[in-house]
Amino acid sequence: MHGYCGISLDGKGGWPLSGDAAPPSSQFAIHQAGATVTGKYRIACQHCTGLVGVPTDRLGDGPRCPSCHTPLFDGHPVELTDGNFDRHVAQADLPVVVDFWAPWCAPCRMMAIAFEDAARRMEPAARFARLNTDEAQAIAARYGIRSIPTLIVFRGGREVARQSGAMGTDALVRWLSGALA
Fold first, then answer.
1. Beta bridge pairs of residue 154
2. Active-site annotation, residues
3. Across the chain, which distance is largest between two alpha carbons, in Å?
């Protein structure tokens, strides 16, 4: 479902996005390498996957999807699939931290707790998401996932950082703080 999405922040503005439309360049600017971000972010709703325009200065105000009214951030990683991966990673502007994991992997299950804790601490600076590599083997192959857990930070649909192996919450937050800077 990829319908009309603007933003709902207690009735305060946003810009409408329809389907895969990009925002007008005059309304949107992202500066790379950790510089200040101005304009608006496109963020994929975790429930309906509609793209929502959120002013950068309103990210911390609890934005909701205007279509399904689900909070855009709830402190829990989004479950990615073959069907929604590109919508969240390639079409959205907010950095996305993806945990490539599998249910049979004991280190993955142990790190899931730290990953969720990092999501609670760090959203909305980034979207946190998990991809089950057993169910999405083509995507895992696309990114050359050879060991799990593997974390990849995406910005603008491009990989900007990668880390393999389980980490505790503090180490994960430290690594992500550097990777997102």
1. 96, 159
2. 105, 108
3. 48
pLDDT digits (tens, 9 = 90+) for 35-62: 334 588 899 999 999 999 999 889 889 9
Domain ranges of the chain: 1-72, 75-181
Homologous superfamily (CATH) of 75-181 is Glutaredoxin (3.40.30.10)
Cα 84 to Cα 79: distance, rounded to the nearest angstrom: 9
pLDDT value, residue 166? 95
Q: Are 64 and 124 in contact (CB under 8 A)?
A: no
Digit-coded pLDDT (tens) for 79-129: 999 999 999 999 988 999 999 999 999 999 999 999 999 999 999 999 999
pTM of the model: 0.78
